[in-house]
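[Meeting: bench + compute handoff]

Bench side (C.D.) handed over the final construct sequence. Compute side (W.E.) agreed to return the predicted structure before the next meeting so the bench team could plan truncations. Sequence as handed over:
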Amino acid sequence: MRRLRRQRKGRSGDVVRPLHLDAASRKLWETLGDSGKGALMLYPTMDAFLAKGAAVLARGPVALIMAEDTVEVDTTIRHHLNAGFRAVILLAPDVLTLPADLEAAVHRVTFDVHGDNALVDAVNAVMDAAEGTWLYYCYNAEYLFHPFCETRNIRELIAFHAEERRTALLSYVIDLYADDLDKFGNAVSLESALLDRSGYYALGRPDAANKNYPKERQLDFYGGLRWRFEEHIPQPKRKIDRISIFQAKRGLRLRPDFTFTDEEYNTYACAWHHNMTVAVCSFRTAKALRTNPGSRFDIHTFRWRNSTEFQWHSQQLMDLGLMEPGQWF
């Protein structure tokens, strides 16, 4: 929790040094005059970013964060900067306001975040330009955890995973929710977050091109709020698995179900041993269930007998079986 605490905004007129920048952006920052700082990494469209800022994609890992609303955008950015990403690309409406230090620390792209499959479209838009670079994507109010993330950063994780000749990493989206919906109407509370400690399961993923036999080393995973309140969730949206960390390559495309057109990217392990998995701890489903009029008035609490306090620590997630270290010790 400590690294998610908000930092005070700079006073009007202050130049606030960015928290983390990739090397190329930091060099540009240091050579700009005060009047240019803060305008360095703002792009009015994705095309403008690809034309003028694509150098950011040359060296990863790079995080793409889509801000669907204003909820916990600042803590989401800080969490992923602290995780060790070389650059963070924020996809957001131009009306979103950030603290000055975060504005200077991210590459901000104005984007229609409410379009159908908006995040999928954004990932695919940068895919070819980012060839060879490791990318990660998420929404606001989502927080990446990987095994031993308190002492090892995302670069170390990816280096180990790449040494195992893997180009993608399976993540489970673990639903977080506030303990008291009367107090936290949008179901978001970092200080009193709960998660389900059980109720997760997997089914074989049928292969339509092979008589619906299960695909090799692929499973569909379910659980959390999407399982407990499935009557409010469209069937295609009920899965909790997401290939959220991957190495971009030309021609590769992310599909609306968060799987890739290269089937090997969608596997949970290589053919010779188990690989690590990660968790994306997310308030997104809880927030949606409390925002949608069709479900808001039917749900008075997300608590149940298997709710437990989220400790904001990777060991808890490994103990619950919600991510695995694989061969990484």
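W.E. noted at the follow-up: Confidence is low (pLDDT under 50) at residues 5-22, 24-39. C.D. will use this when planning the next construct.
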